[in-house]
Design the sequence.
């Protein structure tokens, strides 16, 4: 053996990879010690054997063609780029490999030096990584430097409405609303310039877009991962629609609390100067009656009436603000509630010869006083706004509207309401009738609305002028 | 005795009391502090007017009606004796919590303004002798 050959052999024996030398006919001319270890063959069993002895049966058909092609234009390269390669041991067991090909010109002609690396461990790690990503509760997206998606999990499919194969290989910008996607490549570049674990767009509101074009608020965490294909980024995407909604709700609740507090203070403090006015009118009337002529007395009378009315309004406001404060929901039989209300209104009902028909009503969880007040207001209104020439008839009933609500109705045959007033009647201090015609402070339906809303429901009216009104409201069945 | 920072109310209430012949003397204090000071020292005054009935406003700047009650409880029992406090409120219905805070003091709740009827009711309920108010 020549010196150079010896040197070559020493080097090959010393490398940690399995190395074999294969000739044009595909026969193994040489195999190193690592090859013996890796494949479980003795070197003697391999020499002069077709290289297919190391390849799984299913690849035997095409392998000679590949080999012929390689020898046509021999160059140093990796085998089967993009495909997963498997090798086979003597015991027929398979394992994943990476294979490097190096043409080698020898006295016996061109041969190929094949370097084989067992990548079982790496594949296992990759598989583990894939499993972790797959089982993550968040949508996770792996993308390379060019912004191409290389891996996604099931959550991503679910969240964005895409199939896996639609996303793999696509640009990340497909998931970003048009408004923001223009600047995204630039942002991605700067991320890869100094990759670090961080959340995306700190301080900004981020949005993602689904396949169907709908957008939703998200929070995105970025993790750079070093791979042999360079740095890639693992993005973890959380849909924060629910959280955003919750935040908005809390803010609203807080505003409502503040408003109630303000309402209480305002109505409380407003009473004081009012009382002073009426007190001193009283002094004038009592102490100076003899010095006042009839005209002055009339004016004082007007002041008294106005302050009394103002005082009533302020008290009403106070009561409105107090509705449902520090109350507990209890199980209530609406049949009993309505029966009690009708008893309360007994004299009015008899006086007006009103007929009230009550269907079977459900039992539900509600605030007792408020629920009574609700029925009281609605029945009272139905009687109050009856037709002058027709006896009043009121029907009360309820049906379970199957989306978690009871839907009640209180229907009358009264004067009815024009559609343009349907919303306004539920606002506080709004009255459609002037005070000369009907007494009242415009609080009844505003109270009703507030009470219904306290029970997670809605109230509305269906009516036609001259044909009676039906007030409907829903109450959560929970 | 009237304890209220609202002079308009004081004037009106005093008038109602005097007009209905409910008291001989009406002492008016515009703050809870002044009232406490008076109660601690009235026996040194020439007139030595011992109030039998106090109308106390709840909403006052600095020391309010509730704080007055707390301080009042610390006074000598002798001073407290034969003295009734009526809390005057602007709002209608004091809750149970409010009532509990007056425990240990002979006291009541009324809504402003003080009227003839209210006065009579309080007097029959708490006071047999009409002297100083």
Sequence:
């Amino acid at each position: 053996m020549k010196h150079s050959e010896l040197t070559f052999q020493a080097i090959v024996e010393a490398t940690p990879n399995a190395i074999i030398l294969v000739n044009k006919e595909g026969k193994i001319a040489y195999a190193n010690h690592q090859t013996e270890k890796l494949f479980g063959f003795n070197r003697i069993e391999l020499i002069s054997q077709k290289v297919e002895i190391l390849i799984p049966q299913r690849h035997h058909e095409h392998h000679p063609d590949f080999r012929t092609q390689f020898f046509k234009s021999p160059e140093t390269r990796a085998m089967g780029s993009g495909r997963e390669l498997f090798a086979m041991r003597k015991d027929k067991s398979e394992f994943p490999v990476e294979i490097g090909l190096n043409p080698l010109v020898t006295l016996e002609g061109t041969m190929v030096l094949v370097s084989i690396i067992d990548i079982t461990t790496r594949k296992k790690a990759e598989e583990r990584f894939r499993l972790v990503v797959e089982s993550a509760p968040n949508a996770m997206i792996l993308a390379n430097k060019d912004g191409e998606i290389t891996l996604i999990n099931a959550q991503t499919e679910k969240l964005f409405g895409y199939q896996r194969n639609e996303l793999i290989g696509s640009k990340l910008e497909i998931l970003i609303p048009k408004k923001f996607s223009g600047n995204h490549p630039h942002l991605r570049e700067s991320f890869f310039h100094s990759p670090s674990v961080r959340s995306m767009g700190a301080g900004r509101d981020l949005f993602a877009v689904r396949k169907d074009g709908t957008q939703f608020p998200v929070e995105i965490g970025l993790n750079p991962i070093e791979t042999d294909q360079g740095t890639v980024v693992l993005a973890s995407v959380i849909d924060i629609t629910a959280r955003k909604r919750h935040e908005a709700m809390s803010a609203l609740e807080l505003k409502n609390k503040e408003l109630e507090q303000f309402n209480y203070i305002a109505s409380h403090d407003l009473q004081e100067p009012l009382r002073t006015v009426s007190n001193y009118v009283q002094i004038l009337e009592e102490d100076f009656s003899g010095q006042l002529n009839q005209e002055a007395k009339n004016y004082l009378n007007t002041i008294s009436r106005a302050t009394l009315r103002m005082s009533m309004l302020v008290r009403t406001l106070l009561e409105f603000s107090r509705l449902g404060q520090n109350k507990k929901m209890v199980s209530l039989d609406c049949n009993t509630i309505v029966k009690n209300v009708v008893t309360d209104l007994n004299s009015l009902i008899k006086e007006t010869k009103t007929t009230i028909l009550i269907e079977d009503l459900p039992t539900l969880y509600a605030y007792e006083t408020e629920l009574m007040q609700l029925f009281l207001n609605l029945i009272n209104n139905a009687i109050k706004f009856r037709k002058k020439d027709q006896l009043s008839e009121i029907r009360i009933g309820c049906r379970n509207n199957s989306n978690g609500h009871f839907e009640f109705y209180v229907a009358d045959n009264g004067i009815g309401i024009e559609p343009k007033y349907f919303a306004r009647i539920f606002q506080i201090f709004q009255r459609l009738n002037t005070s000369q015609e009907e007494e009242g402070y415009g609080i009844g339906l505003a109270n009703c609305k507030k009470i219904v809303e306290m029970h997670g429901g809605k109230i509305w009216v269906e009516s036609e002028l001259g044909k009676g009104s039906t007030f409907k409201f829903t109450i959560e069945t929970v | 005795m009237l304890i209220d920072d609202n002079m308009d109310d004081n004037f009106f209430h005093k008038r109602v009391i005097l007009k209905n012949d409910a008291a001989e003397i009406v002492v008016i204090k515009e703050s809870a502090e002044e009232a406490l000071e008076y109660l601690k020292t009235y026996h040194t005054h020439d007139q030595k007017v011992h109030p039998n009935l106090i109308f106390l406003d709840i909403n006052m700047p600095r020391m309010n009606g509730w704080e007055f009650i707390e301080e009042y409880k610390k006074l000598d029992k002798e001073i407290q004796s034969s003295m009734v406090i009526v809390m005057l409120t602007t709002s209608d219905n004091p809750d149970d919590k409010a009532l509990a805070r007056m425990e240990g003091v002979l006291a009541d709740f009324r809504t402003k303004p003080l009227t003839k009827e209210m006065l009579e009711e309080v007097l029959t309920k708490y006071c047999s002798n009409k002297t100083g108010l």
Remarks:
- The first helix of chain A runs from residue 3 to 14.
- The mean pLDDT of chain A is 87.
- The longest strand of chain A covers residues 94-106.
